[in-house]
Amino acid sequence: MTFKIGRNDPCWCGSGKKYKVCHQAFDEKIATYANQGCIVPPHDIIKTPDQIAGIKESCKINIAVLDYIQEHIHPGMNTAEIDKIVYDITTDMGGIPAPLHYEGYPYSVCTSVNEQVCHGFPSENVILKEGDIVNVDCSTILNGFFSDSSRMFCIGEITPEKRRLVDVTKECVEMGLAQVKPWGFLGDMGQAVHDHAFANGYTVVREIGGHGVGLEFHEEPWVGYNSKRGTEMLMVPGMIFTIEPMVNMGKVEIYVDDENDWEVYTQDGLPSAQWEIMVLVTEEGHEVLCW
């Protein structure tokens, strides 16, 4: 990495401080890793304190929406009702549902039931029934700042096998989160997720992963969960990304619906589960911003 900013120039982060007292040592440390051949983050995905504050406000809406759904989801509810709830609460709180019209996606939320891996279309014809598991993936824009998280919901009494899948998937996220700290690597997190899923007899989807988020819906880096410790992008303070493994009860293969080119399913028809959190890398470790 080459830095052309002068020691006494204003820092690139917008703090108003001189570069030498703000981010010079930080950049020099990143450059050391880059010179060793490591993948390092560009400045434009490292968030400033003001940006982080704005992102946290967006997260408040996202959390409030999922909290409401958690209290009101029930057997007999159709997933179009969930879509309306997300739209209404998000807009009432001053936000915009980020998925709506994103690259042609026609709804405000993704509702993925049982063998649907992700990007499930809300529909009046999809009625939640006792024994279903459903992922509700919610994303919000507020004043240009993005938030993104999802939760699994169990509808009524579910089988022990589905309960275990849902619980182990959440554990995968927690184990990955424990590896998020400055000057570690995304692969540290990815391997922790992968190892726990496979130790429990599950597989982790390879083609779809997490992502940077905050100033855009999807930013660098792409975040995978079949990675190795010590690989992938260096984690540094100010980075924000999602941890959102999609864990399959059966085989790893998936397919995309031919008609809408959005909805993703397990190839073998067995259930899949996903939890998604949004995490900030801090000087001391990490902070979960959205869940």
Description:
The chain is globular. The protein is 28% helix and 22% strand. Strand 4 and strand 5 (145-154) form a beta hairpin. The chain has helices at residues 24-35, 49-72, 79-92, 160-177, 186-199; strands spanning 96-97, 110-113, 116-118, 133-142, 145-154, 203-204, 210-212, 219-223, 240-243, 246-248, 254-256, 264-266, 272-274, 277-281, 286-290. The protein has five helices and 15 strands. The strands form five sheets. Strands 1, 2, 4 and 5 form a four-stranded antiparallel beta sheet that branches. The chain has a three-stranded antiparallel beta sheet with strand order 3-12-11, with no helix packed on it. Helix 2 (49-72) packs across helix 3 (79-92) and helix 4 runs antiparallel to helix 5. By secondary structure, the protein is α+β, with helices and mostly antiparallel strands.
Q: Structural class of the helices, strands and pairings?
A: alpha+beta
Number of helices in the DSSP assignment: 5
Give average pLDDT, whole number. Answer: 97
Largest sheet: 4 strands, antiparallel
| Number of E strands | 15
End-to-end Cα distance, whole Å, is: 34 Å
Helix content: 25-40%
Q: List the quaternary state of the chains.
A: single chain
What is the CA-based Rg, rounded?
Answer: 20 Å
What proportion of the residues form beta strands (DSSP E)? Answer: 15-25%
Unreliable sequence segments: none
What's the overall geometry?
globular
- N-to-C series of helices and strands: HHHEEEEEHHEEEEEEEEEE
